[in-house]
Amino acid sequence: MKLKHTNKPLDVLANVLMRLIMISYAMVVLFPMLWTIMSSFKTTSEFYQNVWALPASFKEGFQNYINAWNYAEIGKNMLNSLLVVGVSLVINVLLCTMTSYAISRFKFRGAKSLTTLFISGLFVPLVLGTIPTYFILMRLKLYDTLIGLILVYATYSIPFSVFVMNAIFQTLPDEFAEAAALDGCGPVRTFWSIMMPLATSGIVTISIFHFLWTWNDHIYAMTYVPSPANRTLSVGLVKLTSMAQYQTDWGALFAGLVIVMLPSLIVYIIFQNQIQEGLTSGGVKG
Amino acid sequence: MGKNKNILGRRMDKRLKGFLLVFILPTLLLYTVLYVWPFFYAFYLSLFRWKGYSMDGMLYSGLHNYRKLISDDIVWLGLKNNLFFLVWSTLIIFVLSLFFAACLTRNKKIRHPNIYRVVYFFPNVLSIIVVGVLWMFIYNPSFGLLNGILRTLGLESWIQNWLGDKNVVMGALVAPQAWMFIGFYMVLFIAAMQNVPEAYYESAMIDGAGTIRQFFSITIPLIWGTVRTALVFFVVNAFSRTFALVNVVTNGGPNHASELLTTYLYNQAFVYSDFGYGSAIGVFLFVVVFVISMTVMKLTDREAVRY
């Protein structure tokens, strides 16, 4: 106890220091976000006047949102994004849940190697595949089609989704499946009505992660579906960035940023517990 | 596991086989065509020269692309820049995220640890373009936030053209990466640290070990497995991640100063249609990533402490 006593002033100092650092970093994270939202309501001349000033009028500033919406065709791009993200999500989640169930709960020759094959994809740099995939999509007549992008997105999430779902299925007890089998349920029925519902937490996790990365991707969308009609929201924002530089309409660009940010922000706020749990249960457990 | 088969018995074997096929084959097909096959195909494509955009203009050229690669200064510059990012972003991200995770799990006096968790993780859900454009404006020489802060603090001499100066641009690009990923790794480490039994810290306290000593002799050894996996995962993905960011913010400029192997690969293929050379750079990149991750595995391979 003596030792603890002599340490006290130092402990207090360390505590204060720690808290100061934590609070400053929270500001480093939050401040640019608030600044973006504020700037999205400024006119271009206000941009050059004072970095710190509040926008003169939020009502006039809203014009930026209308401009962004019109220039970048955000409405159309958003529909494309919703379509591509939504359909690829359903495909990925359905396929990976089925496959993980089969390879993690049934013993057959090749089950182990299949698991390794799917999960090792996590450790390969994806950039290497961009050029070949471009040619494969051309061969399949899927280049510059939304279907092509949907299949690419559905495929690129496979390693992570299988990884998470395997971990979940392995922890489910055998009793339910056995009882179902005794009642005469085939494996498909058992999967649909018993195992799927038990694995809901994993399904939510892989859906959120798939949503976040596909919603935020611009590289693959830009490369595999280049024509303006197929633009997703992220690619639209890239175009808006270069356009804003010519026309120096910064307000519109910031409004565009906020529009793209919003859905991720909402998903994050609603599911933040699920996201953080999924990240750790999907287990980089060593 | 596997008990289902015993119960179902032999007569069900055929049905079981059909079930396995239906459940596995579609995924395997997609994965093979768009994930595994492109990987091997890249090696093949790197042996060709290109004329035009389609596959009709392919000319077999043996190792020509690799010879070109070895004597291409930009490739080596790109590698150097990739390694610069790798070292600095790893250092900053892992040190800070371990520090924050330790603060939030060990220091019971910090109020509302969950709020910090939510806030710190937040940049990770943003699109790289949003992060990229955001930092372009933070760095903007005329109305950017950073120069504004420096001006307010009276540090006029520190004002820079952050993204336009070839001596500063690389450093400037590390910050957004750290900003984006510190929270992610912090959450990972918090989960690992919460599994360390309290009893270890209590007995260390009785022995008189201070907070810092506890961190290095208890926390770090006990969560080493997690740190190691995270490190390998980070290294493999670092190359794709930095690419998406640099592609938006500088696209390798000014004058190749922030060129990466990945930006160079991408531009060679999709801007100059030299797909063969792009593929060769990709293969080179793969070898580099492989060597680095193996090295990281070797270097971090300590006896894991069990508890």
Descriptive report:
The complex is a heterodimer of chains A (286) and B (307). Helices cover 79% and strands 0% of the residues of chain A. With 286 residues, chain A is mainly alpha-helical. Chain A has two domains: 2-62, no CATH class; 67-281, MetI-like (MetI-like fold, Orthogonal Bundle). The two termini of chain A are 37 Å apart. The model of chain A is unreliable at 1-6 (pLDDT under 50). Helix content of chain B is 70%, strand content 2%. Chain B is built from 13 helices and two strands, in the order ααββααααααααααα. Chain B has a two-stranded antiparallel ribbon. The longest helix of chain B is centred in the N-terminal third of the chain and has 34 residues, at 73-106. The chains are: A mainly alpha (286), B mainly alpha (307). The interface between A and B is large, with 106 and 107 residues.
What descriptive keywords fit this protein?
heterodimer; A: 286 residues; mainly alpha; MetI-like fold; 2 domains; 14 helices; 79% helix; 0% strand; disordered N terminus; B: 307 residues; two-stranded antiparallel ribbon; 13 helices
The total count of helices of chain A amounts to 14
Give the termini distance of chain B in whole angstroms: 27 Å
Q: Please give the share of residues in helix of chain B.
A: over 70%
Query: Residue-averaged pLDDT of chain B, rounded?
Result: 85
Q: From the alpha carbons, calculate the radius of gyration of chain A and give it in angstroms.
A: 25 Å
Highest-level CATH class of the largest domain in chain A: Mainly Alpha
CATH superfamily of the largest domain in chain B: MetI-like
Oligomer: heterodimer
Rough shape of chain A?
globular
Range of strand content of chain B? under 5%
- Give the C-alpha Rg of chain B: 25 Å
Runs of chain B with pLDDT <50, length 5+?
Answer: 1-9
Average pLDDT of chain A works out at 84
Number of domain modules of chain B: 2
